[in-house]
Amino acid sequence: MSGDVTITGLNEVVAELDRAVLGAAPGAAKVVSKGSLNIKNAWKKSWSGIAHAPRIPTSISYDMTSNGFGISSEIGPEDDAYRQGFLGAVLEFGGLHSPPVPGGLPALADEEPKFLVAVEALSKDLLP
């Protein structure tokens, strides 16, 4: 038995994967940004009109970060930047004297399938 193996076309595959990785960041940033905006807007809408917290929707924002390995987003009420933002956790999860008024979790669940479709489309664009 001989231990010789000949592989052809591997360099082309490696080149395509390198190209896809380099091209992924801008597209991934767009997908994460759009998903974050959709979640933020749905969350704001679900918390609009709460009588005892009329300003809470204006506290909801998102921040995106990239560390070179991935892109992430943090979405939710900002405690220190807006009036009533500190009420976010009590509204979302409930408190001793108040039931939960979920806004973020339903918005996230609603966006998840759309986000997955967008990620799949991005991967199809990057890999022929």
The description of the largest β-sheet is: 2 strands, antiparallel
List how many beta strands DSSP finds.
Answer: 2
Specify the structural class.
Answer: mainly alpha
> What's the alpha carbon Rg, rounded to whole Å?
22 Å
Q: Helix proportion of residues, in percent? A: 40-55%
> How many distinct folded domains?
1
Shape: elongated
Number of helices: 3
Mean pLDDT: 87
Residue windows where pLDDT falls under 50 for at least 5 positions: none
- Biggest sheet: strands side by side, in what order? 1-2
Strand content: 5-15%
From N to C, what is the helix and strand string? Answer: HEEHH
**What is the CA–CA distance across the termini?**
37 Å
Would you give an account of this structure?
Helix content is 52%, strand content 11%. The protein contains three helices and two strands. It has a two-stranded antiparallel ribbon with strand order 1-2. Strand 1 (60-66) and strand 2 form a beta hairpin. Helix 1 runs antiparallel to helix 3. The radius of gyration is 22 Å and the shape is elongated. The two termini are 37 Å apart.
Key attributes of the depicted protein:
single chain, 128 residues, mainly alpha, two-stranded antiparallel sheet, 3 helices, elongated
Question: What topology emerges from the helices and strands here?
Answer:
Elements: H1 10-47, E1 60-66, E2 71-77, H2 88-93, H3 104-126
Antiparallel strand pairs: 1-2
Helix pairs in contact: 1-3
Quick structural summary:
This protein is mostly helical and 128 residues long.
